[in-house]
């Protein structure tokens, strides 16, 4: 079943020049880029995106990180796109992520972990509406 998911290539991906490599992994797996934008976000957009985490202790440094430089937001589409993207991304903590995943091969820490992918169809719908309202 074809579905869509939101992916963020976080500021560390952009800063380290890894955008092309990360995108090629998604494309090589057969996912299609539906929309893509390179931009810098502010705290308001970060708070909307990470709404479920705003009150958590780890969130302020995360907000500082995602607003620290430009990122690439994109919508990918394909068969079981949400599950496929999360598998390609690897475990959240790059130090524990399996080799062969984006985070396992390229991430340097838990916070600066290169990518975000929606974790469910509900999250994907909510996140796509925030980042690409014309697709919602």
What does this structure look like?
This protein is α+β, with helices and mostly antiparallel strands. It has a single domain (2-135), classed as Alpha-Beta Plaits (2-Layer Sandwich), CATH 3.30.70.141. 40% of the residues lie in helices and 21% in strands. The chain has seven helices and four strands, in the order βααβααβααβα. The chain has helices at residues 11-15, 19-28, 43-49, 59-66, 81-89, 102-106, 121-131; strands at residues 2-9, 32-39, 71-79, 115-117. A four-stranded antiparallel sheet has the order 2-3-1-4, sandwiched between helices. The longest helix has 11 residues, at 121-131. The mean pLDDT is 96.
In short:
The chain has about 140 residues and is α+β, with helices and mostly antiparallel strands. Helices cover about 40% and strands about 20% of the residues. The mean pLDDT is about 95.
List key phrases describing it.
single chain; 136 residues; alpha+beta; Alpha-Beta Plaits; four-stranded antiparallel β-sheet; 4 strands; 40% helix
The helix count comes to 7
Written as H for each helix and E for each strand, in order along the chain, the element string is EHHEHHEHHEH
User: Which percent bin holds the helix content?
Assistant: 40-55%
What number of structural domains do the residues give? Answer: 1
The CATH C-level class name: Alpha Beta
Structural class, by secondary structure, is alpha+beta
Spatial ordering of strands, largest sheet: 2-3-1-4
Q: What is the CA-based Rg, rounded?
A: 14 Å
Kindly, what is the distance between the CA atoms of the first and last residues, rounded to a whole number of angstroms? 18 Å
Principal-axis shape: globular
Name the CATH superfamily classification: Nucleoside diphosphate kinase-like domain
Q: Largest sheet at a glance?
A: 4 strands, antiparallel
CATH topology: Alpha-Beta Plaits
């Amino acid at each position: 079943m074809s579905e869509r998911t939101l992916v963020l290539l976080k500021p560390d991906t952009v800063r380290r020049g890894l955008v092309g490599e990360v995108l090629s992994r998604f494309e090589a797996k057969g996912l299609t880029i539906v929309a893509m934008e390179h931009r810098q976000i502010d705290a308001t957009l970060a708070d909307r995106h990470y709404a479920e985490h705003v009150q958590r202790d780890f969130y302020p440094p995360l907000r500082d990180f995602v607003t620290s430089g430009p990122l690439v937001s994109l919508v990918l589409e394909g068969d079981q796109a949400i599950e496929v993207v999360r598998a390609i991304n690897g475990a959240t903590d790059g130090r524990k992520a399996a080799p062969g995943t984006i985070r396992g091969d390229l991430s340097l820490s838990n916070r600066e972990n290169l990518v975000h992918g929606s974790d469910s169809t509900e999250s994907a719908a909510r996140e796509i509406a925030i980042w690409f309202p014309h697709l919602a």
